[in-house]
Structure formats: C-alpha cells, structure tokens
Amino acid sequence: REDGAHSLLAHLGWSDRFPVVVGRETAAAMKPAADPALYALDKLALTPAVAAFIGDTGEDMQCGRAAGIPTIVGVTVIRSDAQLRDAGATHIAASLDEVASALLPNGTAP
C-alpha cells in the first residue's frame, strides 16, 4: 500500500528521493503486470529505455521485464540470486548500497 511505503520512506529520510510511489491501489493491475512500472514512468515523464527497475521478488522482476525496462536489479533480501535471475533480473545486488554503487554517477544516493 502507498501509505505504508510513504511511512517507510519518511522513517528512512528518503521521501525526497521518491517523487512517485506506486501502491496496490495506484495502477490498473498489480505486479507482475507492467502497469505499476509504466504508471511510475509516465508520472516521471521517462521511457522504459532510460529506467532501471529494482526489486526483491519474482513479481518485481517480471513487472520490470513486462514494462520493457532493460536494467532489472534483484536485491537478495528475501529471494536467492537464482530465483531473481530466473524471474528476469539482469543484475543482482546484496543491498541498496550496491545498487547505488552500480547505478548512480558518484556511487551514492544524495
């Protein structure tokens, strides 16, 4: 749910890093459908070609793939490398710090 995500982001001090939050009630269909990713991309005025999708479940990987996002990062918090790769991950990370190092220009989130 969006309200839970907003609460978590506020607790982490990350609210300003996520201008769009997509919950179960936001998009027309839930993951693994592409709808949540495409909704966020539309709100950010971005195309799938310039996006990366980060998640920790098979449904996350499938959603990114269905949306046509070329970089899909599986974070091994609750699923194994193999499970995430089988579901469509193009890259694997053990933490969000690893994701930041791989995707952000200076390797750290602002």
Which key terms come to mind for this protein?
single chain, 110 residues, alpha/beta, three-stranded parallel β-sheet, 5 helices, 40% helix, 11% strand
Describe the structure.
Helices cover 40% and strands 11% of the residues. The protein contains five helices and three strands, in the order ααβαβαβα. Strands 1-2-3 form a three-stranded parallel β-sheet, sandwiched between helices. The longest helix has 11 residues, at 2-12. The mean pLDDT is 91.
Task: Chart the SSEs and their pairings.
Elements: H1 2-12, H2 35-44, E1 52-55, H3 58-66, E2 71-75, H4 81-86, E3 91-93, H5 96-103
Parallel strand pairs: 1-2, 2-3
Instruction: Work out the helix count.
Output: 5
Main pleated sheet: 3 strands, parallel
| Fraction of residues in β-strands | 5-15%
Number of DSSP E strands: 3
Large-scale geometry: globular
Distance between the termini: 25 Å
- SSE order, one letter for each helix or strand: HHEHEHEH
Uncertain segments are none
Mean pLDDT: 91
Work out the helicity level: 40-55%
> Given the helix and strand composition, which structural class is it?
alpha/beta
Radius of gyration: 13 Å
Summarize the structure.
The protein has 110 residues and is of the alpha/beta class.
